[in-house]
Amino acid sequence: MLYFARGNTGEDKSRRLLLLAVEGSQRKGSDAPLGPARFAHRHLCRCRGANQKESGESGESQGPVKRMGEKYTWVKDYEEGLLNSAVIKKPLMVIHHREDCPHSEALKKAFVAEKNIQKMAKLNFIMLNLVEEPEDENMSPDGFYVPRILFVDPSMRVRINIVGKYNNRLYAYEPDDMEILAQNMKKAKVLLHTEL
User: Fold this and answer.
1) 78-189 — its CATH code?
2) What is the pTM of this model?
3) Are 101 and 67 a contacting pair, CB within 8 Å?
4) Where does the chain cross the membrane (predicted)?
């Protein structure tokens, strides 16, 4: 069974942004038309700023988040990850962790040490670190625990069929599980066929 990922607001904001990106790529002006990714990025930044003003946030960054490797580009949040995944046609790899969790730290070290995983992450995935849980319940199909890793297809379907080896924590990986994670990354690289 697969689940569609949803945006933070409960409405399918990411799909709306993707449609706006496609429309933006078709616009003609005095200059070259905006490409889908560039248009979507501009629009997403405006939406994020508007949401922050509505919720009373200052809009300033809370500082750098410790990430599981700096060799590739990480997206800033779940919405941006979904949008980039859909536009670029690469799966989104979502790593849920906590900075104060020894299990998360151990997984981070193992993840960074694995050259094969690093190469696949750089070439084949949109990467997202999540310290805070998104409001999308599809990102916690078997509960809230860290560390856990889920994959989202560019069609915005959470790949709940790609699991680790633990029956009580389906999406958990430990330092000794890097071979399983590499196999699961290979599975996630094979995109779903959503055409009817």
Assistant:
1) 3.40.30.10
2) 0.67
3) no
4) none
